Amino acid sequence: MVPLLKQVVKKGVELSVDERNLLTTAFNNVFNTRRASWRIIFSIEKNEYKGSEKHFATIRGYRIKIENEIEEICRDVLDLLDQSLIPNASTGESMALYYKMKGDYSRYLTEFVSGKKHNPAVISGYNAYKIAAYVAQAELTAAHPLRLSVAVNFSVFYYRILNSRDRARYLAKHAFDDAKAELDVLIKEPEDDSILLMQLLCINLTLWASSDSGKREGISCRKTRHTIGARIQST
Fold it and tell me: Per the database record, which ranges form the 14-3-3 domain (predicted)?
């Protein structure tokens, strides 16, 4: 599916919503498969450290091979974004999505590259998430799934990559509070994706507060007319 979608992207036209969904799903599947393999190999490598030197070298070689494949996938996505998708984006929603994707795949790179490659990936991720957040806040409602998704991933980037924990909590809490305020006056039922993403924000805030200070963040996942915790227990 990925080669076919790449051909469509390179035609230089704005993708439809369905095409964008296919694109993000296809690349996520390819990346997540490699990352899952990497985690397994990394775990085996740690266990083999004191074992056979020959086995250790083989496992290490396979891990490096997977890391190279992951880097290639990330750079492939980033090239498509920079050369075709972002220049041809014609709506605020598509622009926010593409910059979020650029932030995501730059963040993935930071997890697997080192040395001179690492810092450019960090800068690329930060700048992309910053633009995605700006566009999402300007163009999308507070409870829109894409705006919430940007907030989730940007706050994780702050926490894990930049080690800016206060900023991560600030961003996540404000995104949660803004969406909650919107849902409290919403007549119709909110989208399930919005509920799930608000739950992710709440879970992250709780985990981050517990790990940093032993105290829970002053936030409740249940205090909204459209109850969050009742639908989604975990993700």
Answer: 1-223
Q: Do domains 1-139 and 141-235 have the same CATH topology?
A: yes
First to last CA, the chain: 27
The CATH number assigned to the domain with range 141-235 reads 1.20.190.20
Q: With beta carbons less than 8 A apart as the criterion, state whether 70 and 34 touch.
A: yes
23-56 pLDDT tens trace: 999 999 999 999 999 999 998 888 766 667 777 8
The pLDDT of residue 219 is above 60: no
Q: List all residues 6 or more positions away from 98 whose beta carbon is below 8 Å from its beta carbon.
A: 81, 85, 86, 89
Domain ranges of the chain: 1-139, 141-235
Instruction: Give this prediction's pTM.
Output: 0.87
Tell the CATH topology of 1-139: Delta-Endotoxin; domain 1 (1.20.190)
The more confident residue out of 22 and 48 is 22
